[in-house]
């Protein structure tokens, strides 16, 4: 209802996310969104998820706790080294393209294209953690990767940086084919 409608308006206007309100799953933070996605991926027989190296350690722990294997992919000054994905047996990639943690790298335009090409060709899912992209003081915020391919990107975010980490309020915008599996 109202909360999803307001979130829908914000995500479209501010972050460039393309979705319908029924694709938004309100969660207890991005961590819960990641766990939900991992469960769906495991049901779909995905065994491994590529993660940024370095990355937020809790994400690796959550992936492992869900029964999946995190596979480290190096990050350099242009973000995740997407050219390495073709040689990996992974069904998804978790990354923060607007501001990789802790390196601060931003996924370059060329690598965004390469990542989405990998997703389309492999059938893989891109999991976008957009934890603080709108809080940029050093440059104009970069639009969400999800807006470039809503069928291949699951977009997650949280209010923990904007309001308070104590709220544990986040969202997940899933590709339409995953939405019903996430809310069961």
Provide keyphrases for this structure:
184 residues, alpha/beta, 8 strands, 32% helix, globular
Summarize the structure.
The protein is globular. The chain has 184 residues and is of the alpha/beta class. It contains five helices and eight strands; from the N terminus they run αβαβαβββαβββα.
What general outline do the C-alpha atoms trace? Answer: globular
Structural class: alpha/beta
Strand content: 15-25%
| Cα Rg | 15 Å
- Overall mean pLDDT: 84
Sheet with most strands: strand arrangement: 1-8-7-6-5-2-3-4
Q: Main beta sheet: strand number and arrangement? A: 8 strands, mixed
Contiguous helical run count:
5
Structural features, described:
With 184 residues, this protein is of the alpha/beta class. The chain is built from five helices and eight strands; from the N terminus they run αβαβαβββαβββα. It has helices spanning 2-15, 30-43, 57-65, 109-122, 176-182; strands spanning 24-27, 48-53, 69-76, 79-80, 92-95, 125-129, 153-158, 170-173. It has an eight-stranded mixed sheet with strand order 1-8-7-6-5-2-3-4, with helices on both faces. β2, α3 and β3 form a beta-alpha-beta unit.
Summarize the topology.
Layout: H1 2-15, E1 24-27, H2 30-43, E2 48-53, H3 57-65, E3 69-76, E4 79-80, E5 92-95, H4 109-122, E6 125-129, E7 153-158, E8 170-173, H5 176-182
Parallel strand pairs: 2-3, 2-5, 5-6, 6-7
Antiparallel strand pairs: 1-8, 3-4, 7-8
